[in-house]
Amino acid sequence: MKVMKKTACLALCICLICGLTCTAFAADAMDPRTLAMVNKPAIVLVQTIWTADITWHEFAFRSNFEDDLITAIELLVLEGSIPNTEEAMYSAMVQLMIGNMEYYAFSTGNVFTETTSTAVVGTGFIVTPDGYMVTNAHVVHTDEEDLYMQFAMTALNEYAITAADSFTAEMRRLGHQMTQEEWDGIANAFYRLLTQSMEVNNLQTSYICFMGNVTPGSDVSAKGIYLDLRKIGEPIPGKDVAILKMDKTNLPTVALGDDTQLRTGDRVYAMGYPAVATLTEALNVAQAIQEPTLTQGLISAKKEMAGGWSILQTDAAIHAGNSGGPLFNEAGEVIGINTFGMLEQGGGTAPGMNFAIPISIAKQFLNEINVQPSESDFTRQFKEAKELFDSEKFAEALNILRTINEINPGYPVVADLLSQASAKVSSFAQEPAQETTQGTTQETTQEATQETAAEVMVKPVTDEKGSAVIIYCGAVIILLLAVIIVLLLTRRKKAVPENVTFAGQPYQAPVYPEPGAEQTPPVTKQAPQSAAQTPPVTEQAQPSTAQTPPQEHDAQSKKPGRFCSECGSPLSPSAKFCENCGVKLQ
Question: Average pLDDT, whole number, for the chain?
Answer without folding.
Answer: 76
